[in-house]
Amino acid sequence: xxxxxxxxxxHFGDAHFIKMDGQGVHVDLSTLDSSxxxxxxxxxxxxxxxxxxxxxxxxxxxxxxxYAPEILATRASVSLQKIGVVxxxxxxxxxxxxxxxxxxxxxxxDESAEYLFEPVMMEKTISVPIYxxxxxxxxxxxxxxxxxxxxxxxxxxxxxxxxxxxxxxxxGIDEAAVRSAIADGRFARIxxxxxxxxxxxxxxxxxxxxxxxxxxxxxxxxxxxxxxxRHFGNRFPQVKxxxxxxxxxxxxxxxxxxxxxxRPTLPPPPEDFDLAPLAGDGTAIVKTTKDEFLVANIDGFxxxxxxxxxxxxxxxxxxxxxxxxxxxxxxxxxxxxxxEHGEVQEKRVVKGKNITVMADVFGEVESxxxxxxxxxxxxxxxxxxxxxxxxIAGLTSNATVIAKKGRIVLSxxxxxxxxxxxxxxxxxxxxxxxxxxxxxxxxxxxMIGATQIRIGHVGSRRNTPTMLSIVLPDLASASAxxxxxRLRSTEITSDIxxxxxxxxxxxxxADVRNYLIVAGKIQRKELTLNDAQKDNLVKxxxxxxxxxxxxxxxxxxxxVLIAEQNQLVHRASVLRQQSTQAMNTVSCQIDQSAxxxxxxxxxxxxxxxxxxxxxDLRQLLGxxxxxxxxxxxxxxxxxxxxx
Length: 643
Fold this sequence. Notes:
19-stranded mixed beta sheet, FapA, about 35% strand, CATH 2.40.50, Flagellar Assembly Protein A N-terminal region domain-containing protein, FapA_N, alpha/beta
């Protein structure tokens, strides 16, 4: 671009980026360092008594603000390209002092400025004729004199920009409002300039992924659409290993604003945080090229610590609110451990594995395995473990305790039904107890059935005797099965003898017998034949083939029968051994007895007794039995084993 700077341009200092021609005043963006450099140029122009004529104010605003270093340092700079030439005025004109004096000081407020517009007058010097009065009464002009008068004038937007610059307002003039007020020519106080406020950035945030972080205490909706009022939707959130739980949303910087002085105003720095302190046990931080996630390391249950905000995933669920219709509803868990610190209220059910309750239980606790540990009392409820043990530290009263494949350990039991593989109780009163083995320190007025019974002290109270049933193995069933095996073995012996007779008859033929002898020696490499002997042997084999096939078939039948007979002998031996071992485990020991105690032999399988209802079990164990099955408890200690 060809540049033609006027002589006064030298007063403006270094302005190599300014280009002037017949089309106006331009800025070559490729040579402009920043908006600061342009502002310095404008400052020199207006302080030298000049203004921008025919100003393109939007372009002017961009030049004094858009290329500020603070803005170029932000992400917005990606869209800024300092290329090309920008026209911002038609020319640079002298701003006479008398015109500059027409502009009042603005009223400055917070980030804005107001201006009082009013009609303006300007002094003007004019030549006025001097008249002399003649004798005839006429006037004759004898000369001129200069006189200063006030004449009406108007403001000018281009001058207004320069005047406000000198008064500290360099950015944000409302061009439309100012031009309208100037054209109106009346008194008016209006806002003429506004600063551009800084745009705050966004703070770093934590975003949940999915809805599993929150408990859902709404009633559980079943697959068929029905509502289960006993269960909550998702009381204990469960997650899988590798599942994303939280995502960190990174902070973004704000955009600088521009003050009335055309100076950048920086936004407050956005708040950031480190995701690592939020990662508790069972979680990890995973970073990708763009995002940062908190993920679960293991399958388990989600736990958010309200005090530290740490998020952890544990195999154990810990609940402090108790189990009630209001707090949790019935609970059915798939985790390996559940620890409850509150009460389990009446009619509420807790299902899971490895269940520990620190407070009293009035409802039902059902475990699929592991151990049930009740640290306080079980009153009026039930505890059952399909494949594990049950330990109750407090009182077990009016309750049912069942662990058919496990061990039951109780401190004190009253009016309880207890069924387990092995039962250990410190004090039991008025209980119905069935197990393979039972060990009780003190039993009063109980109904007890077991293969092995050991009681430290047994007695009765309130005229209710203690009923003891020694469960003997069902040897009759084993004996019947052994007899069936013996009968079948005898039949097999007879069948084998008949088949051997048929076999001997077939091989009695001389050719058959000789062929079998020769073939056996050849197979054992005891004999070698020449070609003629081989041909002769083949002819003999062809002739006796039907007989050989029949003999082979009979021999195979004999071998099958022998294998069956050997298996029967082994099974019968195992049954006899098991019966002997079962009888050897039967015992009853009572260290001390007082009051009414009844002891009898009960021939039954404990496994079958396990399947009885509570009512039938009470009835069976409360029966004194036939006279021949009754035993007298005498002597201390009393020890009985089957003869």
